[in-house]
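1st attempt posting a full record on here, be nice pls
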Amino acid sequence: MVKYGIALGIDPDPGNPDAAYPSRADAESRERADIFGWLNGQIEDRSDEIGKPPAALREYLSAHEDDLRALVAALQKDAPDWGEPPEGEHLGKHFLLTMRVSRTLLAAALVADFDSNFIESGQALEASWSLILPMADREKIVEQLIATAIEKLQAGVLRKVKQPSLSWQGRLSSDGPYKHMLAAIRSGTVGRPSSSGALDPEPNDRADRKLVSAFLELLERSSPCGLAAMSDEDIANSLKKTLGPDLPEEVRQAGSIKAGILVPNLLNAARRAGRTEVDRELTLRVLQLRFEMDAAPGGRWPDRLMDRTSAVCPAVEYAYRSDRSGIEVRFEGTINPPTSIPVIPLAFRSRQPPFPTPTPTAAPVENDR
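the predicted structure (as tokens):
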């Protein structure tokens, strides 16, 4: 994977003077292409249109066409195996490389789709899925964060492409980033030795177990929308109450401090994954609607949404509208806003209605609130 990254103008190990790095021409070509900026702009748009790719991006993709095809072929054959990092090595030196390669693949998929090269678009999308499989299956929080970020990008791109494979409906309906993140949080917290210092190790360990058990129970019984309704302070205070009078006062005080540290970091990871879970579910709704449209006589959008209830947040429904100007599907619940860009909209609308004879007086789809 490193050699493909270098060929695409990506520095796989920034700051290491002894590592291999791309040629100046490749690096400059990639910088001019502004893959990150263009891809974000497409994903943040709630319509099904793909904006015209800029000339610099086309030049970059054209100059690296053979490298991209070799990368896609390699990922179609097998997912990358990074293995376990050596003892003492900084975790995940490949994370930045994975993110940048994934953005390249997804931007290439959108450009190919814009040009009606649907086979190439689908292959680039499949390669992006293969790229993150090793991370998505690992119970490590940092790897789940990277996988979640890429799955968010995939969800945004899939709303734009015209002929994604049916495999994506299965992927988006299976266990996603929220469940995987909770498994990683459990794996990273259960059994972790406490730093007892001058405290009696036995009650200190007991306090740790109480905190972790209560935190995991809260996460596992809450939906992503349920987490959005609770503040960090409320959750931390709830955890502190688990430190009962059977523990020494100094242990309870230390546990209260740990609760205040535990909540923000791990809760942020869970909320990121929960938001991406909602993004993916809305994308699944879009793919299902397109599938119904393709199968319908005359290629008409469905009149109604078959299942309006969210599986991610069972108390929430999706709003749906279909008329001669197109469709709109919107998540009606409250969920935490993403903490990083791009922001995938909680609504989708079609600006390219399949209806054969649209009337000029049709009401436009309303803008987001």
